[in-house]
Amino acid sequence: MNWGNVLMLISYFFAIWAIAFFQPKARDKESFLAGNRNISWPRMALSIAATWIWAPALFVSGEKAYVDGLVGLLWFLVPNVLCLILFIPFAKRLRQRLPRGYTLSEYMERVYSQRVKRIYLVELVGLAFLSTIVQLVAGGKVIHTMTGIPFWATTVILGLFILAYSLRSGIVSSVTTDFWQFLFIFGGLVVIVPMLAGEVGARSIVEGLGGVKNQGDIGFFDAHGIEVMLAFGIPTVIGLLSGPFGDQNFWQRVLSVREQDVGKAFFWGAIAFATVPLLMSTIGFMAYGSGFQASDPSMVNLEMIRDYLPYWATVIFMFILISGLASTVDSNLSSISALVHDMKQGASMKDFRLGMVVMTIAAIICSNIPATIVDFFLFYGALRSTTLVVTILTLMDVRLSERGAFYGVLASMLIGFPTFVYGKMIGNTTVSLVGNILILILAGAVALTLTRWRHHA
Hints:
Keywords: Membrane, Transmembrane, Transmembrane helix, Transport
Structural class: mainly alpha
Number of helices: 20
Organism: Geobacillus thermodenitrificans
Pfam families: SSF
Subcellular location: Membrane
Order of helices and strands: HHHHHHHHHHHHHHHHHHHH
Largest sheet: none
Distance between the termini: 71 Å
CATH topology of the largest domain: Sodium/glucose cotransporter
Helix content: over 70%
Strand content: under 5%
Radius of gyration: 22 Å
Oligomer: single chain
Protein name: Sodium:solute symporter
CATH architecture of the largest domain: Up-down Bundle
């Protein structure tokens, strides 16, 4: 047991808890679920950025830069940023049409029916649950590495810590702690990256732009570039562009920020987010450019910092990882409280908080089932794509029939999603890519076909 790191972890937890504690305690539904719809855009922008910094944004950007070079990084970074910007016009439309609402599923019920709301709830709740499991697994491993505390105990500690500060003020607790966690992430990287460049040489960044697999060459349309596009790029674009559309975390922020500031919050949130994978990828470029041999490419950033910088820099980096993961979990907990409002008519403050508690306990339990962890990580990105097409068509005022909306999403869930899952399980890139495409095509084709049949009937 590393007691020094344990004490630093306790200090970090106390600081985050104190930030949440000094926020007024939510007394009613409007403040708990929507922050009285008066959260300022600077706070919301950094909360959006922090919420979008989930596990892959912290690990994949460095790995792709190290392994696939600039090609791999751009396939990851551009859709990550673009999705938040493309989301803005749809976010504005929902805010105008649901000024006093709380969830996307609530809006879909108003437009279509209760069963359409229910199928949206399956996707929104499923995503929040699976995402929470993944963050607890990643965060638990970081804390286990830092302190030596058994992994199962770290998931309990992390889950209960985030729950404790989320219960006080709901969305306001989430946004406020996210704001400070993002500043810590950005500030830590601004310190660490230049220090590392000083150790291995800034020129290693330029020399590392090609990546390991392409032996230093930057080629978007050579054999390696095409391979990256098919195996990683296209599935990433589909998964990420659907990200905010199928995630209650972002719809709740749309409905909580001041109405006139929705666009500013998401635009600057996207820009702020971009700085983190850019800084993380810089370490990956330096690793290849300096000739560093990573034992685990997915952990190349941590290995570089551990090998070249003082121990305190490694501790800061681990807290950066925890901050990014915790910000996503507290957003998921806040989301589930809003979804409880949709699931139970006349739900009370007690019900909202109970929903948070139940999801935290369930996620902690599932994060300690080793056989299912990889599945959780692979599948929830595709799950959120199942509602993308119907959501966009609805917000664009395409008049879908109720049957079209329901069966479009259902076909995507029952055919496209399982195809993607099967492809991932057998390691077949072609099958998983077909599944990803089917998720989108089936939803649109079924929804529009059934709508036309209704009009011709």
